[in-house]
Design a protein that fits this description.
CATH class: Alpha Beta
Structural class: alpha/beta
CATH topology: Rossmann fold
Distance between the termini: 37 Å
Number of domains: 1
Number of helices: 8
Largest sheet: 6 strands, parallel
Oligomer: single chain
Strand content: 15-25%
CATH superfamily: P-loop containing nucleotide triphosphate hydrolases
Strand order of the largest sheet: 3-2-6-7-1-8
């Protein structure tokens, strides 16, 4: 049975990982993706090319047949700049476009998931990329949209931010708003 939007309240994960460096970010993504794939779930990865290229050998080293999960359609890899271009309007995420594009992607990925309860996990760097470009409000809005997707489709979401991207002072407010949208906050 394919994954469908739900109108009832469900428990979902929308985790936030603050990473001290690129190695920590890679560790966080590897753990999140590996856990989902080993459970038979599908995974959508929206990350920079360098992170995506580093993930594959790490997942392989952790006992996953990466070629097989890609062939099955359970591992979908996308570029964050290209993904953002599909739903950004006037510097902000358009909720209707985002919901349509992301919902279609999730439903497609769910078809490849194994097991009775087809689940999808999504992880990425879109909101952190927006924040790094000085578009804090767009990043916060995107986190809210991902939160709605996580609730609606029972999707687990992991967002990885470099810890050094937040400075003292005015960034505290943004930092608090980003943390508040997530169900759990981790530091690596």
């Amino acid at each position: 049975m394919p994954l469908q939007p739900r109108d009832i309240k469900i428990v979902h994960r929308h985790d936030l990982g603050f990473c001290s460096d690129d190695a920590s970010l890679l560790d966080g993504f590897t753990h999140f993706i590996g856990t989902a794939l080993k459970a038979g779930n599908a995974v959508i990865v929206v990350a920079t090319e360098s992170l995506r290229d580093s993930l594959l050998p790490r997942l392989q080293a952790n006992g996953l047949d990466v070629g097989h999960v890609i062939e099955q359609g359970r591992y979908i890899s996308l570029d964050p700049v290209e993904m953002l271009s599909t739903f950004m309007v006037n510097g902000m995420p358009d909720p209707v476009r985002f919901s349509k594009i992301t919902g279609d992607l999730i439903l497609s990925a769910a078809k490849a998931a194994n097991g009775e309860r087809r689940r999808v996990a999504a992880c990425g760097e879109c909101a952190p990329l927006l924040y790094a470009e000085g578009k804090a409000e767009a990043a916060i809005q995107l986190e809210h949209l991902w939160n709605e997707i996580a609730k609606s489709y029972d999707v687990d979401v992991f967002c990885g931010y470099p810890m050094g991207s937040f400075q003292a002072g005015s960034d505290r407010y943004i930092f608090a708003k980003i943390c508040a949208v997530h169900s759990a906050v981790h530091s690596r």
